[in-house]
Amino acid sequence: MANNLRDFLIDLGTNEQTKANYRNDPDATMENAGLSEQEKQWVKDGNLDEINRNIGEAHTAGKWIDISES
Amino acid sequence: MDKALAKKGSLTVVGTGIQLGSHITQEAVSVVKSADRVLAVVAEPATFEWIKRLNPNTKSLAILYDKKKSRLEAYQKMVNEIVESVESGYKTAAVFYGHPGVFVNPSHKAIKHLKRLGYQAKMLPGISADACLFAELGVDPSRNGYQAYEATDFLLFNRSLDNSVSCVIWQIGVVGKMSIQKVESEDNSLKVLVDELQKYYPKSHEVVLYLSTQFNIFDSTVKKLPLSELAKEPIPELSTLFIPPAQPKRLNLKMARKLNIDISNFTTQHPT
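^ inputs. structure came back:
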């Protein structure tokens, strides 16, 4: 399923040109990536809670080990 | 099942590192791309989607977690799924967040089990949270040594500390919490940990709460505070505590003579 915010974060992490573009002009880079105004604000605020809630299904798990077996 | 195919199954375990895209090694990317099947446990959805783009035959193992059950049960299910994939003859990549052998139960278990069965199984190193901590906090673990404990383990198993050695306390954000939740009782685990640490360090000793960023456009969280204030601090689940040495290391002159080491050029030792 398309998700501009998720795709933007992937691109930033894997594409050196996008990283450079973001450093030079974050607003234009986010605009080109198709982020909504709300998404842009989350990124500007560093709001990881909202970002993680809105970038797709959480097929994830925090890395927390149960020590009872050790 | 085709017997010839079944013999070809193998496992390579890799880590994504902490930061999406930036920390994964070229070798790990190659392993993911060339695998018949990829089984993944990662920290957030963007990384999972990225792994799927590298190899569309990617499945999440994180769906095996069940909050009502022990994490140990989930780990065993993960091991079973990894082993089954290899036994079915597939070149299997198992992908974990960070370093795949640090705070990961199923990776080591799956490799040991498969090796016993005669399959090729190995792990490649990845970037873990302490590697990020060393880089961002300017810590060289070789200078003053390095001791590291999981927070609850430190408390439950009577671990001791050398306060002239750099110290990392892992999983401080979930200290005292086992996967089968404790019943009732107000959680004072963090205070218990701080009280225990104050047996080794002065209350005023500066410690560092550290959380490495997962996305390269955000800064990591680095919060310095006196040990005495730690119990009042809200601590994100994935945080790590770094405690710098509280006293300098002491030179053992007898040992220097035994080793025939000339100490005349040694600089004064002090904590970094």
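Chain A is about 60% helix and 0% strand. The longest helix of chain A spans residues 4-14.
thumbs up if we can close this ticket
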